Amino acid sequence: MQKATPRSVSSVLASSAALALALTACSSSSDDSSTPTTGSLTGSVLNSPTPVGGVKVTVSGPGGTFGTTTSSNGTYSIENLPTGQYTIDFCGQGVFDSNGNPIADKINLHLPSSNIGSGSTEQKPAFLPERALGLTVDTMGTNTGVIPAGTFIENAGITIFFEEDTTATFLDAADTTISITPVPTEQIPVALPDGIVASALVAIEPAGATFDIRPEISFGNGGTFPSGSTGVEIYSLDYATANWGLSGMASVAANGDVILSDVGEGLASTGWHAVVVDTFCVTDIVGRVVSDTGAAVPGALVTALNGLTAETDATGEFTIAGVPLPNGNFDVIVTVVPEQGAGLLPNESSAVAGDCGVETDMGSIELTSTVTDTVAPTVASTVPADEDADVADNAALSVTFDEPMSPGSLNANTLTVLAGTDEVMGQIGVSTTGGQTTATFVPAETLPVDTQCRLRISGSVMDAAGNQLGEAVVVSFTTAADAIGGATTVAITPQSPAAMLPGADAAFTAAVTDAAGQAVEGALIEWSSDSSIMEVTAAGQVFALA
User: Fold this and answer.
1) Which side of the chain, N or C, has fewer Cβ within a 10 Å radius?
2) What pTM was computed for the model?
3) What is the mean pLDDT of the segment spanning 25-51?
4) Under 8 Å CB-to-CB from 16, ≥6 apart: which residues?
């Protein structure tokens, strides 16, 4: 397999006017001084964006052919031109850049006619490309050579592949190096027909070389066409007429990354080639990105045709300006900037192109929420706290987590209590309120007094999404020296709910003491009422009846 070794191309053909390539060598110029002179032509020749000296500039029109050469700073001036229409050629044959690379070797830039008026000065700038390195075909001194099967040439995401032995015929036996120069679409040399725009553009040199078997050519897609698309058109520039025409068809790979010419539809010749997309206008796309709850999504990246993008503002709105819209339906892809879009899935929305010059309103593009919790839970608090002393021997023990937990993971194996070295038996209750889960351990018997105890929460307890705590949490505490008896008295404040208005909520405080009058702390109090004016819910809420 032979492989070209391209170098980076820093500039391409462009002009303030449309450009076309001519296949003539640099022509000599003459000046018919007998012709009346009334105007002049000036400009500069650049190479991304370095000025290029030594480029021959030739104009042809009334009175003959006139020419000059650009100065070291890339400028040129041709004066005393008769009034009328002129064609202009820029020829870089034999001109090299500062690195010794040939610029526009053996190709001319031919500009459309320019009108030179009486006393006028016409400005015509031009951009010449560097000649990219490529594959040199051995023609043994002739203009014909064979490219072996399996050979490919590539540069900047564009590849030419010769699947079979292919005979290449060149216009000039001295120039048989095939090279690929990607070109920004806005610098297309000659305007495409109305209704289409280029999504990819390439200059393949030397111009005019032909192949007896068409090699396939591939381009990067860049999101212009949907994955698996067929019927993508490749246009080529006809040098004889300086017009574009359909030269082949292509399809988009299943992964959407590459546009590949169809079998037998590859390159018939070198020169200028473009992947085109049908359009009928260029307009702005506006819309708003919201979640499925209707909330605005700021920071979402919205991508339209040709990779044009916008980011939604604080209200979720976006505008993508200057989008070339195809006939019929088109897709707008919405992705989410990670820091702004936690829990939101990307989405695609379709629309129909609006009239030229009129905004196409996408309306609201909804992004679907998804719960993707990968964060481990943590222990928010415990009762008692770690290292607490004088804990009542009949106290209920509890642990509160910072998020809802899986109730099944909080059990006798994962929530244990030791009094000294002895395991304490008890009942475990689990409740979730306010986005937090509390597990309560009620000892079956009172704890021994004046004893070092430990409440252990296993690292295997899980939140609702299945994330484990990770490391076990151990809470150490010491029971009080004096035993606390069972609850014998419960004092309710306020003592009477008679003053409550119907439907109103009330806050009740219960003071619990044992037979000796000692406060019983941490004990579970079960509310109930048989009152006709007060009701207690299962959650413990008290409210007045009518």
Assistant:
1) C
2) 0.43
3) 60
4) 123, 124, 125
Smallest CA-to-CA distance from 57 within 39, 73, 71 is with 71
Please give the angle made by the CA atoms of 298, 299 and 301, to the nearest 5 degrees: 120
The C-alpha atoms of residue 476 and residue 153 are separated, in whole angstroms, by: 73
Three-state DSSP string of 416-478: EEEECCEEECEEEEEEEECCEEEEEEEECCCCCCCCEEEEEECCCCEECCCCECCCCEEEEEE
pLDDT category of residue 97 using cuts at 50, 70 and 90: low
Structure-token pair, residue 482: 């004096």
At 353, list the tokens. Answer: 């192109």
Token pair in block for residue 14: 């462009």
Hey, which residues does 181 pair with through a beta bridge?
A: 203
CA distance 409 to 399: 13
Q: How far is residue 134's CA from residue 176's CA, in Å, rounded to a whole number?
A: 10
**What are the pLDDT digits (tens) for 385-429?**
999 998 988 888 999 999 889 999 999 999 999 999 999 999 999
Predicted confidence (pLDDT) per residue in 516-533, tens digit: 667 766 666 666 666 666
pLDDT tier at 27 (50, 70, 90 boundaries)?
Answer: very low
DSSP 385: P
Tell me the C-alpha distance between 39 and 32, whole Å. 14
Q: How far is CA 361 from CA 287, 291, 330, 364, in A?
A: 6, 18, 13, 9
Looking at the DSSP assignment, which residues form a beta bridge with residue 429?
440
Q: Concatenate the DSSP letters of all residues of 109-169 into one string.
A: EEEEEEEEPTT-EEE--EEPPB----EEP--TTSSEEEEPTTEEEEETTEEEEE-S-EEEE
pLDDT at 169: 96
